[in-house]
Amino acid sequence: LNLAQLLGTLDIIADSGFGAVLCIASSDTFLRACAEHRGDGNRPKDDLRKQEIETTLTAIRYARDKGIPEVNVNFQDFLRADLAFLKEFSKIVGDAVSYTSILDDGGGGIGLPILYKEIFRAVRKVTPAKTALGIHAHNHAGMAVATALASVEGGCELITIGVNGYGEGTGHVPLAETVYHLEMLYGFDTGINLENLRSASVMIADIMKHPLSKIAPLVGDDAFVVMHDKHHQYPEYPFMFVPMKPEVVGNKGRVGFSEWAGPFGLRLHAKTLGEAISDNTIAPMLEALTNEMQWRKRALTDEEFRTLL
User: Fold this and answer.
1) Which residue among 2, 83, 111, 215 has its CA within the 20 to 30 Å range from the CA of 123?
2) Which helix (H) or strand (E) holds 9?
3) Strands (E), the chain
């Protein structure tokens, strides 16, 4: 967009009563690409940086004059940005707005989590305290949660998330895993009821008509299914093979049967169904269970298990 188009868009936002997010280029690569799209790609790097700053400040002032209640800024492609310029740009924007400056990694996957941490640490030192710093991370390489948490370690205060990680392509930072780590491992109080994570994930999956993966961490149907019989051998040590009680995130655990089925899991599953298995029943039950699953090519339902028992 040129400046006139940008201000016209802000007019529409002002009429709607919404806040605004200004997406701006922070890397020289992105600045050059935008300039080429506008037809002035041959301009010097310093000119492109100066123009982006001036355009951003003009848009911020215009949004305020129009009464837009909240103006946030999204620094796109920050991983490729010159750090000195990113710090300068962040301070300038922070002095102009008191809401949130979000660093956007573009597609993710081009930097280790520690890079996010160090960039946020550097930017936080020069950005006014009144301006919260946020991360908008993509999951193209499966590292969105790791990079978001590393950003928090560097001073990030806001994470943009998607329930079940839903978003463009491979999606963004998933809600359940992020809340779990922030609450259970980092000790933050997010204000989110962990017991509702599973039900929220199922509901949003239904609304989006995008099936929730059975193996989705924490909230998937199979997240707490334990199959190997040795994993059922130590009931007095419930966290030997899982990090928490499934109920903490609104899920439930169950025994999964496979070629690793054995007496401990068999007894445990029967107990959850209100049944008991005598010692002389275990061997024939395991043999029958294996035969049933081989021809059915699936796990047995609880009713089928009872019938077999």
Assistant:
1) 2
2) helix 3-16
3) 20-25, 71-76, 100-104, 132-136, 158-159, 161-162, 173-174, 225-226, 254-255
In order, the DSSP letters of 196-209 are GHHHHHHHHHHHHT
Nearest of 55, 19, 63 to residue 38 by alpha carbon = 55
Q: Which residues pair with 133 in a beta bridge?
A: 101
* Cα torsion through 153, 154, 158, 163, rounded to 10: -50
Nearest alpha carbon to residue 58 among 86, 28, 24: 24
Tokens 């199959």 -> residue: 227
* Residue that is written with structure tokens 């400046």 in the block: 3
Structure tokens that stand for 61 in this block? 């002032």
Residue 93 near residue 101, CB atoms below 8 Å: yes
Q: What does pTM read for this prediction?
A: 0.89
Q: Which residues are CB-contacts of 18 (< 8 A; sequence separation ≥ 6)?
A: 68
Task: Give the neighbor-by-neighbor strand order of the sheet with 132-136.
Answer: 20-25, 71-76, 100-104, 132-136, 158-159
pLDDT in tens, the chain (309 residues): 578 899 999 999 999 999 999 999 999 999 999 999 888 888 999 999 999 999 999 999 999 999 998 999 999 999 999 999 999 999 999 999 878 999 999 888 899 999 999 999 999 999 999 999 999 999 999 999 999 999 999 999 999 999 999 998 899 999 999 999 999 999 999 999 999 999 999 999 999 999 999 999 999 999 998 888 888 888 888 888 889 999 999 999 888 888 788 999 999 899 888 998 899 999 999 999 989 988 988 888 889 999 988
3-state secondary structure 237-289: CCCCCCCCCHHHHCCCCEECCCCCCCHHHHHHHHHHCCCCCCHHHHHHHHHHH
Residues in the chain: 309
